Amino acid sequence: MRLRFTKMHGAGNDFVVLDATRRPLELSAAQLRHLGDRRLGVGADQILLIEPASTPGVDFRYRIFNNTGNEVEHCGNGSRCFVRYVVDHGLTDKKTIRVETVNNQLELTLADDGRVRVDMNRPIFDLARVPFDASGLVPRAEGGFELWPLADVGVELAVLSMGNPHAVMRVADVDSAPVATIGPRVEGHPRFARRVNAGFLQLLSRREVRLRVYERDAGETLACGSGACAAVVAGIRLGWLDRRVEVHARGGDLLIEWPDDSASVLMTGPAVTVFEGEIEL
Ligand SMILES: N[C@@H](CCC[C@H](N)C(=O)O)C(=O)O
Question: What's the pTM value of the predicted model, to 2 decimals?
């Protein structure tokens, strides 16, 4: 099968974007892995599939696959690229777009400066929904939140979901943080039944942080949008951060806002087309 694709990135988190709005596209896990492969395929952290919506009032369906072929619930940076794609390819003339994902709906707005603002919905703190098994653990309370000890890994985690699972650790310096060694141990820890995205957060001030994320399946990426939201929400609940925070990832910057505890988290950032092409699968 010959497949047209668009290669995009959001703050360095990169994607192969596929248009399945006109005809259905079913790809096997092996084909998705091939697309994501940086040597044998196109190369991407995630593969994004755009489909027609099945719900009235919703513009598109947006599906996300990690480069392992696993379908996942959320991808913040990918959602910005999705908007750029549907606008640039004339699939809509709206500037505010509603999209359904595997477990949610999102509202996305293309700003005049080309950046995209995403309503990432409300964070989920119910540990069973992350899911995180905290049985037998005693958390340390800080601010209005808990830090959970993983004694076997030697870390303390804030745990929450942005629709997908996140664990956030505070570090003194992201450059020297043990992302490559601790990241996979947290990602695959048995207390996270569906594994987890592991964030390493360095505070610069109450309004500015640096962040690295070891993503579930994809490993460390240059940025993780849902990870940035999770880290800022955790930092706010722990009393470390204000409600509007600039997040510096290795591949670019994201603005994260959480106006109050009952509000949606808002993420604003770039979405860039790199090239278009065709590949034989
Ligand atoms: N890069 C993403 C998150 C992609 C999914 C993640 N690896 C998971 O498995 O949950 C983002 O920008 O949010």
Answer: 0.98
